[in-house]
């Protein structure tokens, strides 16, 4: 039998196990919307830890991480740097969000923010922002999955079919089980990814150079490799040395935005206790540590396989060059599928939930009068969003990667609102709206016209520089929200 | 603000400062290599571990009346 067929069989078995793990837990969750969106608020530490971790580690981490290290060197440390402090805020607001959700029935980020700031417009704005950043995100995950299957089948399975099969599995368990399907599959896929990453990150440098230290020494001493490869802040996309403005501001914006990504934030509503929520925040860096072997994979290839383009294909490229047992290649491919699917499922589930709860409920409240109807609409949206993302992934040629690059700047604009929700009572509806709209408009402006930036900082920083003064200024100039409302958020 | 919180916020700000310019610029070089990793890489991993232990300490030292399940 040809080796690619064995690899495909391994991936097939993997997909079947994932599907079973995704559908079975959904059978025990209630038929309610809370069951579908927030898993009846019953997630324990193990599941929540992996839901958070595996949602973050997407095909960007598995394919893009080594790609960054390979082509941009030390710039890739940025990916570890922003996660170092980025999840800490969730330790503090996570338990509060969880308790408020339990008390008032919130299941999405926009619901809690629009309640605190007394604004339905805010809810609609956040729903639109979420879906705009989620669709390109999901599209890239699908492309990653399709790419892996096409590469390992040596082109026998086209990209449209590969992406289609992997995401049909995701669609099925998200459709049937909601967030509990996401939870259990991410636990399984997260453990799987970690093992694969550590194995490859230690094995490749050992096999090719005799060890990690020897590998870095050879890179450092090689006259053909620029010093900026190992010296922070590394290189830019085009291979020029990156500047500190760009590096530092990218780390800051991503750290600020990290904890308020709508699909991560809303998992606070699924936690079964404050302790679970807090420990998820505490333990998050242990997941982040798994980027270390991921980056080492990329560094290994600098001397061993120069000139591979595009850089994101370096991991599959290395795999095909080494004489690895077929089983191992199959497992690594399944690991890459795991990375793609475990992010894709969380995004798909969140986008559909947010779309119905925060968007559709404002325009068609009559249609969502019962839990059953609402759940039905969320499921319809799960299918629609899958189809839209699938269209962008395999049919359309629009370069939507650019949209995703700008998304961190946009998401970071939510952070000041979340902070003020609990820690600044004076913040009110108009302040929140002015800050968010001003911040997003500024971010988009500098994303479109980067040459107009006074210094080469990330556009999201400019957004925050407009957002925060507007939030504070407008709030102070207009009357505060009612005491009754504020009390809910201060005594929690 | 309690002393515990003050220490936490100070150390957190120090870690955050260490991740970006200008503090990271001091540790951005290649030599000395630490455990086989270039200084720039080892420094980021060191800060990741520091941030982990900082929050772990903060969590474990929480006064018992404010924890617990509600």
Automatic annotation (TrEMBL), chain A:
InterPro entries documented for this protein: Na/Glc_symporter_sf, Na/solute_symporter, Sodium:Solute_Symporter
Tell me the membrane topology, using the record's own terms. Multi-pass membrane protein
> A Pfam family for this UniProt protein?
SSF
Give a yes or no for keyword Nucleotide-binding in this entry.
no
Q: Which domain of life is it from?
A: Bacteria
What are the entry keywords?
Membrane, Transmembrane, Transmembrane helix, Transport
Transmembrane residue ranges: 6-24, 45-63, 75-94, 122-140, 160-176, 188-206, 244-261, 282-305, 325-348, 376-394, 400-423, 430-449, 461-478
Give the chief site where it resides.
Answer: membrane
Where does this one sit in the cell? Membrane
PANTHER family hit by this protein: SODIUM/PROLINE SYMPORTER-RELATED
Protein family according to the UniProt entry: Belongs to the sodium:solute symporter (SSF) (TC 2.A.21) family.
Q: What is this protein called?
A: Sodium:solute symporter family protein
Organism equals: Fodinibius salsisoli
């Amino acid at each position: 039998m040809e080796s690619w067929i064995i690899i495909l069989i391994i991936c097939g078995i993997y997909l079947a196990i994932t599907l079973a793990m995704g559908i079975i837990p959904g059978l025990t969750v209630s038929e309610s919307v809370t069951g579908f969106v927030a898993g009846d608020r019953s997630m324990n530490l193990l599941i929540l830890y992996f839901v958070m971790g595996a949602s973050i580690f997407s095909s960007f981490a598995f394919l893009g991480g080594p790609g960054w290290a390979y082509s941009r060197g030390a710039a890739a440390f940025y990916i570890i740097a922003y996660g170092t402090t980025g999840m800490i805020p969730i330790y503090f607001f996570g338990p509060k969000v969880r308790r408020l959700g339990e008390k008032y029935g919130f299941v999405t980020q926009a619901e809690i923010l629009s309640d605190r700031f007394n604004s339905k417009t805010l809810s609609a704005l956040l729903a639109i922002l979420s879906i705009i950043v989620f669709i390109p995100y999901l599209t890239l995950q699908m492309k990653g999955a399709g790419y892996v299957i096409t590469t390992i089948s040596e082109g026998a399975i086209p990209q449209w079919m590969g992406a289609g099969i992997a995401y049909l599995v995701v669609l099925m368990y998200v459709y049937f089980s909601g967030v509990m399907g996401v939870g259990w599959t991410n636990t399984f896929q997260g453990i799987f990814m970690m093992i694969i990453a550590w194995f490859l990150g230690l094995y490749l440098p050992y096999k090719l150079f005799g060890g990690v230290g020897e590998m870095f020494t050879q890179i450092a001493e090689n006259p053909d490799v620029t010093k900026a490869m190992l010296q922070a802040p590394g290189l830019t996309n085009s291979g020029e040395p990156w500047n500190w403005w760009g590096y530092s501001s990218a780390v800051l914006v991503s750290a600020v935005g990290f904890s308020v990504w709508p699909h991560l934030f809303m998992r606070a509503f699924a936690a079964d206790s404050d302790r679970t929520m807090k420990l998820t925040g505490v333990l998050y860096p242990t997941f982040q540590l798994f980027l270390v072997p991921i980056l080492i994979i990329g560094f290994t290839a600098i001397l061993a396989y120069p000139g591979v383009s595009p850089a994101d294909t370096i991991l599959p490229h290395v795999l095909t060059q080494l004489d690895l047992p077929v089983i191992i290649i199959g497992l690594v491919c399944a690991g890459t599928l795991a990375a793609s699917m475990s992010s894709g499922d969380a995004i798909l589930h969140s986008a559909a939930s947010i779309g119905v709860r925060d968007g559709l409920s404002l325009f068609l409240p009559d249609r969502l009068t019962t839990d059953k109807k609402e759940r039905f609409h969320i499921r319809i949206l799960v299918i629609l969003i899958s189809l839209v993302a699938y269209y962008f992934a395999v049919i359309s040629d629009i370069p939507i990667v650019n949209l995703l690059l700008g998304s961190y700047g946009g998401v970071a604009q939510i952070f000041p609102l979340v902070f003020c929700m609990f820690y600044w009572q004076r913040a009110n509806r108009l302040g929140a709206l002015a800050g968010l709209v001003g911040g997003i408009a500024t971010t988009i402006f500098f994303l479109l016209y980067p040459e107009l930036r006074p210094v080469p900082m990330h556009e999201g920083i400019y957004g925050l520089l407009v957002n925060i003064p507007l939030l504070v200024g407008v709030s102070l100039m207009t009357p505060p929200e009612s005491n009754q409302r504020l009390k809910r958020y201060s005594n929690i | 603000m309690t002393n515990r919180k003050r220490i936490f916020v100070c150390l957190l700000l120090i870690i955050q400062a260490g991740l970006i310019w200008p503090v990271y610029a001091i540790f951005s070089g290649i030599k000395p290599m630490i455990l086989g990793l270039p200084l720039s890489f080892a420094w980021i991993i060191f800060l990741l571990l520091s941030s982990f232990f900082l929050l772990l300490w903060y969590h474990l030292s929480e006064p018992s009346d404010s924890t617990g399940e509600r």
